[in-house]
Design brief:
Chain lengths: ~110, ~120
């Protein structure tokens, strides 16, 4: 089983739609969680951290379910500019380990 | 705009060449990272420097040699690479482990697209 799993997509949605991505992680000791977005041939950019209580940033809402070991990202009122690959990222939190594990990404295409 | 810069943007090298990739950040971050990313795959961690000391080497072949001359700079020296090493090489930085900030809040440079012929 992969440490971090995502549906690769692509998710093809019309402008204005609401779309949700899920990501599961295997290590229950994981400590911190993030969503990054990566545009084609560009570097990953931090979209948002995911907190236990859930958090919202404009049209984006992230939630964490520790019991079921998944995190989610909800995008409301999709824009063409939201088209990108969304990477779920987990810090497995091993003692002294300062590194991340990336999911393989979910590709989103927002269409006019 | 990224605050992590990388040079060169593109590099083509032969298997017998020696070259170096450079990364610089001026955000006062004390952790820096090298990642390798192949097409349609997520970034794979190669090395982590924390407070200018190598803290993680993900079993990377010795033909890749990292160097951290100071807290703002990170180099990756390349020697005798193979065609399968062709990829996008990404540098990233984050606040150090004593900052209290999550290590996952990393800032990536634009990458060096490397082709080994």
């Amino acid at each position: 089983r992969k440490e971090v799993e995502q549906d690769p997509g692509p998710f093809n949605v019309p402008e204005g739609a609401t779309v949700a991505f899920n990501c599961t992680y295997s290590n229950s000791a994981s400590q911190s969680f993030f969503w990054y977005r990566q545009d084609c041939r560009k570097e990953p950019k931090l979209l948002m951290s995911v907190y236990s209580s859930g958090n919202e940033d404009g049209r984006f809402t992230a939630q964490l379910n520790r019991a079921s070991q998944y995190i989610s990202l909800l995008i409301r009122d999709s824009k063409l500019s939201d088209s990108a690959t969304y990477l779920c990222v987990v810090n497995l939190g091993s003692t002294g380990r300062r590194a991340l594990t990336f999911g393989s990404g979910t590709r989103l295409r927002v269409q006019p | 705009d990224t605050e992590v810069t990388q040079t060169p943007k593109h590099l083509v090298m032969g298997m017998t060449n020696k070259k170096s990739l450079k990364c610089e950040q001026h955000m006062g971050h004390r952790a820096m990272y090298w990642y390798k990313q192949k097409a349609k795959k997520p970034p794979e961690l190669m090395f982590v420097y924390s407070y200018e000391k190598l803290s993680i080497n993900e079993s990377v072949p010795s033909r890749f040699s990292p160097e951290c001359p100071n807290s703002s700079l990170l180099n990756l020296h390349l020697h005798a690479l193979q065609p399968e090493d062709s990829a996008l090489y990404l540098c990233a930085s984050s606040q150090g482990p004593l900052s209290g900030r999550a290590v996952g809040e990393q800032y990536f440079g634009p990458g060096t697209r490397l082709t080994v012929t």
